[in-house]
Design a protein that fits this description.
The chain has nine helices and 15 strands. With about 300 residues, the protein is of the alpha/beta class. Pfam families: Metallophos (PF00149).
């Protein structure tokens, strides 16, 4: 397998910090448009199934949570300090309604070229949703045509993106034989049991399946005798107090989970206190992002 060139050694947080510290706080619409075009060119050179070398950090669903994305990038560099210097406006509506509509279409174009799955270190299969009864070989993924403007036009792509394990409210369904069922939870993709995961790993030579797609209260959850793990990176999802997590795979294939604790709840402040806080925003760091070691837990699995 040819490894993806996307796994580089440069510090990923540098670009983020440059954006945070720039004098112009807003990102112009044409900057985003140009960036999207550059991303598309790079994605067009990738396969649907990307091979990634180790060491690597695997990130789950972000759901637009920029601060947890920043924490995930710093986790990749073993940094212990996470600070919020300023903010970057990321709402499309703040780029004016006219440009917001144009950029949404541009984002959709970018998404249509994105790879659908990855194999890390030749042994870890990474996918957003799960596996599929239509996935006889990993080579089938590369046969899916791109750009994929409507995912539901391809049944295998739909399953890879929307499927879920048969794990009702964290009560395992007994494993007898591989089972696929219609995914009534999402009305797209399939549901699969533990036996299906074990059969897939044995058939493809994978040791682990890493997926996201599901909010996990404590950041990650193991399934199918530790042959599948669901990781969810965004904390405070839909105002829940859930943890987030990322997975670090070292050069020897050893796995470590890093848990992000949710930001502490903020007490409602009186008007005078809010005014004083606004005056100090340029000189104070948000305590949620100071000292990562106090806001993160580390677990070997």
């Amino acid at each position: 397998m040819q490894y993806s060139e996307g796994n580089v050694d440069e510090i990923p947080s540098e670009t983020v910090e440059q954006q945070l510290l720039r004098e112009e706080k807003d990102i112009a619409w044409y900057e985003v448009d140009q960036l999207c075009n550059e991303v598309i060119v790079n994605l067009m050179n990738e396969q649907n199934l990307v091979s990634v070398s180790v060491p690597v950090t695997i990130v789950g669903d972000i759901h637009g949570n920029f601060h947890d994305l920043y924490r995930a990038l710093l986790a990749r560099t073993n940094s212990d300090m996470i600070e919020e210097r300023t903010s970057v406006k990321t709402s499309l509506e703040e780029l004016t309604p006219f440009y917001a509509n144009k950029l949404q279409k541009k984002f959709e174009e970018v998404f249509s070229w994105m790879p659908l799955a990855a194999v890390v270190g030749e042994k870890i299969f990474c996918v957003h949703g799960g596996i599929s009864p239509h996935l006889d070989s990993l080579k089938d993924i590369d046969k899916i045509p791109r750009p994929l403007l409507d995912v539901k036009e391809n049944i295998l792509a739909t399953d890879l993106i929307y499927s879920d394990p048969l794990d009702y409210e964290f009560l395992h369904v007994p494993k007898i034989e591989p089972i696929f069922e219609a995914n009534y939870l999402r009305h797209a993709g399939v549901l699969f049991n533990e036996a299906t995961v074990e059969e897939f790993c044995e058939r493809t030579g994978m040791k682990l399946i890493v997926r996201s797609h599901t909010m996990i209260p404590f950041g990650y959850r193991l399934f199918a005798n530790r042959k599948m793990i669901t990781i969810f990176t965004s904390t405070g999802y839909k105002k829940e107090r859930n943890h987030g997590s990322v997975m670090k795979v070292d050069k020897d294939g050893k796995i470590k989970m890093i848990n992000f604790l949710p930001a502490p709840l903020k007490k409602k402040k009186k008007k005078d206190e809010k005014d004083q806080e606004n005056d100090d925003t340029n000189t104070k760091n948000d305590s949620r992002y100071s000292n990562c070691s106090n806001r993160c837990n580390y677990h070997d699995i």
